[in-house]
Amino acid sequence: MKFQVLLFTFFICFGTQFLVAQHIRLDKKEMAFLASQEKINVVFTYHDLHFNADNFTEAEFLDYIKKKIEGKLNTEEALDWEQKHLAAKDSVYPRIFVASLNNRIKNYDHPVEFVWNDPSIKYTMKVQTDWMYFGYDAGIAKQPAKANLKIYFFETSNPETIISQIDVERAEGFDVVGSLSFYKTGTTTSFGPSGNWLEEFLKANEDYPKPSLIRMGNMYDKAAARFGMTLKRVLD
Question: What is the pLDDT of residues 100-153, one digit of tens each?
Fold first, then answer.
């Protein structure tokens, strides 16, 4: 009986922590403008980005990871992973986030379209990642990739005046190939045929000691889907 009570208490506490972690706060008055827009420009930044519980700078993190890969494999593999990591930050993670977000809100009453890097659009949403953790998969022991995102809305011509800031804390994603919410083999996205970039990215199924880029991509997918659910309050 005591065991059952303890088990019940554990699940209640765990569930409460999970719900708190998943909640994204949004000011409906600040975000009311969104429902009247057709498109929103999206930019990604990584200003003052840090990694892991150690809070490594990116330079420190890359030095640590490359030495780890070199020790287990070789220098060529280490440099190859670094290039793929930087490319994913620049052009893959933004595409995943935008495609997932558009997919999540497409059936709302006011399904605004988010467009990556189009400064001609009146309003911009800036997604700033300031902390990353790649997680791991050691068989029976797993940790998802995690990140902290700050999302800012402003007029594209006036980036200094922030209309609204929304924090997405400890977004999580596992490295399940093909599990992206918007993706099915042969389908298209707002970026054209998904095979042009996404299928190539999904080939990068790294094993230890390389941190999983796919796992981090899944994090951006899940973060965008959560954010899309939050936008239901102003778009539906």
Answer: 999 999 999 999 999 999 999 999 999 999 999 999 887 788 899 999 999 999
Residue range 19-31, pLDDT digits in tens: 334 578 999 999 9
Return d(Cα 180, Cα 194) in angstroms, integer: 12
Handedness of CA 77, 80, 86, 92 (dihedral sign): negative
The torsion angles phi and psi of 146, rounded to 5 degrees, stand at -135, 155
Long-range contacts of 195-204 (CB under 8 A, 24+ apart): 197/91, 197/92, 197/95, 198/92, 198/95, 198/96, 201/88, 201/92, 202/177, 202/178, 204/84
Residues 6 or more apart whose Cβ sits within 8 Å of residue 132:
49, 50, 51, 52, 145, 146, 147, 216
- Asked whether the beta carbons of 216 and 177 are under 8 A apart, the reply is no
List helix spans (H) across 88-208.
93-105, 198-202
- Give me 24's structure tokens: 């994204």
pLDDT band at 16 (very low <50, low <70, confident <90, very high): very low
